[in-house]
Amino acid sequence: MDHKSFIDSLIFEYVNTFDVKRACQLESEGFPPEEAFTLERFTYIQSAALTLFLGAYLSDSSSTSFRKLSLIGFIMSTLADAPKFTKESMSYHNPFGKTVCIHTICVDKLYRRRGVALCMLKEYIMRLKNESQNRDMNGKYERIALICHEHLIPFYQKAGFILKGESEIIYGNEKWFDFVLEL
Ligand SMILES: CC(C)(COP(=O)(O)OP(=O)(O)OC[C@H]1O[C@@H](n2cnc3c(N)ncnc32)[C@H](O)[C@@H]1OP(=O)(O)O)[C@@H](O)C(=O)NCCC(=O)NCCS
To answer: Can you give the residue ranges of every domain in the chain?
Structure first.
C-alpha cells in the first residue's frame, strides 16, 4: 500500500472501554517502565476525559462478517489550569482546565515512521478546535501543552508546537522539554 492510501485508510475514533487495555499495552511497549502509565490511570482518563483520548485504527481485513478495527496508535490527555504541562495533570483531570496536557502519543512499532503520529496530531488539534468552538467562553480550550525528550523535539516542531525550553519536571531518568501550541 502506498503512503497516501495507508494514511487515508486510518480511522480516528475516541478509545472505548474495550480498547483501553490495548492502548496500555502499546504504551508499555513504547515507553520505559518508569515512564509508562498503569492500566488504572488509563481507565481513569478514559472515563473522565473521553474526548481527549483519541485512537488511530486500521480496519482488520481478516474479519469478514463485521467491521473490526485494530488500535495502532493513540493520544491521551487531561485538562489542567496551569499554562504549561504539570505533573499533577498526570493523575488528575480538571474538567474546568484550559490547558490540554498531552501525556502520551504512541504508535505501534510496526507502523512507525509512516506519518501516523503526525496525522493523528493534526486530527486531534482539529477536533479540539471544533469542540472548543461549541463550548461557552469559560469552557474553551486555550492551548495544548506537553513534555518530550530531546530526540523528539523535531517531531513536535513539525507538528507546529513551540519549544519553551527545558522542563522542571522530573519523571523517569531523562531530561524533558516543554512544548506549547496555542489554540
Ligand atoms: C514518537 C512516535 C509517537 C512517533 O510516531 P510515528 O508515527 O513514527 O511518527 P511520524 O511517522 O508521524 O513522524 C513524523 C516525523 O517526526 C520525526 N520523528 C518521528 N519519530 C522520531 C524519532 N523516534 N526520533 C526522531 N524523530 C522522529 C521525523 O522527522 C518524522 O519524519 P520522517 O519519518 O519523515 O523522518 C513513536 O515513535 C512512538 O510511539 N514512540 C514511543 C512512545 C513515545 O516516545 N512517544 C512520545 C512521547 S513524548
So the answer is: 3-182
